[in-house]
């Protein structure tokens, strides 16, 4: 299986840190959530060990389309209806603060170029108009685009521009986050698969595996794994897209990189049953659909240089499960971001760490696993 394009970038080895015996907190998963949690805990004086079954950034955090978006899986106006205006605004503000924090930690791995959410038909346009009104009414920066420019003009009848969203080189970002956690004192153990949480020598355990199997029993049944397939083209001869784009309620997404490549993902609705899996891999059905999308976006068929996939976790109510696991003393979870893990993963890893350190933030109430356990 071809690996993620992002992972080909050379990386400095992590600073080795010897860690023997028990620790205060064991973190399962070396992606954005686990590393954010480890960094905050280590800065707070806790002895932390991170277990990663493969290598840093090799899981979902290094296999995404590279989007850094505020908010969550549900549009803002629906979040207001479901959560109430105050809670919805608190969630959006949390992710905006997290994007600012990510910018400081990620350096040139994050470009704050904004994102464009496109309507594919009249129904989706009406949905975007409702979200635009709700965001504007609550004081959030957002711009309405009545007719997207360039090759998109005749395909999408309206769009929302989120001006402070960003484009990520996700592997570079995750490796920098890992280096910061290691420098703060965390022991990061690559190629260390955790087969049983009972074997971990720690006062507290944080499971941060998003859609990958976690060993949490009933909570594994609540968070459903979903595979996202992605591909990258050769560098194009012209600049077509200045920021990340997503359409069809997130089922299509793409961005053009600084070197001219187009990274395109989605189309999982071609075979939803087949993509409901925790097995990485690519399939002819989805790959053919993605190639067709590239042809529409470019007006030609550039060479495909990379094909890969990653697994993310879908929550039944579009909110992640973050907090102590009901009925299991000392066990915490942070997973189920429903495709929005790049920013929410950072936010939720830090929320769990702060709670363990005795600084529980009110936003954690939004994600309490007890609501679904």
Q: Which terms summarize this structure?
A:
FAD/NAD(P)-binding domain, 9 helices, 373 residues, alpha/beta, D-Amino Acid Oxidase, Chain A, domain 2, 2 domains, six-stranded mixed sheet, 17 strands
Explain what you see.
By secondary structure, the protein is an alpha/beta fold. Helix 2 packs across helix 4 (122-137). 50% of the residues are buried. It is globular, with a radius of gyration of 20 Å. 30% of the residues lie in helices and 22% in strands. It has helices spanning 32-43, 76-83, 85-106, 122-137, 170-184, 218-222, 272-275, 284-298, 341-356, and strands spanning 23-28, 48-52, 67-68, 110-111, 115-118, 143-145, 159-162, 166-168, 187-190, 202-207, 224-233, 245-247, 252-256, 262-266, 304-314, 321-324, 331-335. The strands form three sheets. Strands 6-7-5-12-13-14-11-15 form an eight-stranded mixed β-sheet, sandwiched between helices. A six-stranded mixed β-sheet has the order 9-2-1-10-17-16, with helices on one face. It has a three-stranded antiparallel β-sheet with strand order 3-8-4. The protein folds into two domains: 19-111 and 166-223 and 315-373, FAD/NAD(P)-binding domain; 112-165 and 225-314, D-Amino Acid Oxidase, Chain A, domain 2. A hairpin with a 5-residue loop joins strand 13 and strand 14 (262-266).
């Amino acid at each position: 299986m071809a690996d993620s394009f992002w992972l080909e970038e050379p990386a400095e080895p992590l600073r080795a840190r010897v860690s023997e015996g028990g620790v205060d907190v064991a973190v399962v998963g070396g992606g954005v959530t686990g590393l954010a949690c480890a960094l905050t805990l280590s800065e707070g004086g806790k002895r932390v060990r991170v277990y990663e079954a493969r290598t840093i950034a090799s899981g979902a955090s290094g296999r995404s389309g590279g989007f850094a978006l505020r908010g969550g899986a549900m549009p803002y106006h629906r979040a207001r209806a479901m959560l109430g205006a105050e809670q919805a605004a608190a969630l959006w503000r949390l992710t905006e603060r997290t994007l600012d924090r990510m910018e400081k930690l990620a350096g040139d791995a994050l470009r704050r170029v904004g994102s464009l959410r496109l309507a594919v038909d009249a129904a989706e346009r009406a949905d975007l108009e409702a979200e635009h009104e709700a965001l504007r009414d609550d004081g959030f920066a957002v711009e309405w685009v009545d007719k997207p420019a360039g090759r998109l003009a005749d395909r999408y009848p309206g769009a929302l521009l989120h001006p402070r969203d960003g484009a990520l080189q996700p592997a570079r970002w995750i490796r920098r986050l890992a280096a910061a956690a290691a420098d703060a004192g965390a022991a990061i153990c690559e190629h260390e698969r955790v087969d049983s949480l009972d074997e971990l020598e720690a006062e507290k355990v944080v499971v941060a595996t998003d859609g990958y199997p976690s060993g949490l029993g009933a909570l594994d049944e609540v968070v459903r794994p979903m595979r996202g397939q992605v591909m990258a083209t050769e560098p194009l001869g012209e600049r077509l897209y200045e920021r990340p784009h997503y359409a069809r309620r997130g089922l299509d997404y793409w961005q053009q990189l600084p070197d001219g490549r187009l990274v395109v993902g989605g189309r999982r609705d071609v075979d939803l049953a087949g993509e409901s899996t925790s097995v990485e891999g690519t399939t002819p059905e989805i790959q053919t659909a993605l190639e067709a999308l590239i042809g529409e976006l470019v007006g030609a068929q550039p060479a495909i240089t990379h094909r890969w996939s990653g697994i993310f976790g879908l929550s039944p109510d579009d909110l992640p499960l973050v907090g102590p696991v009901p009925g299991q003393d000392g066990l915490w979870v942070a997973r189920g971001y429903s495709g929005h893990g790049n920013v929410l993963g950072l936010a939720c890893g830090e929320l769990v760490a702060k709670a363990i350190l005795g600084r529980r933030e009110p936003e954690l109430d939004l994600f309490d696993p007890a609501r679904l356990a």
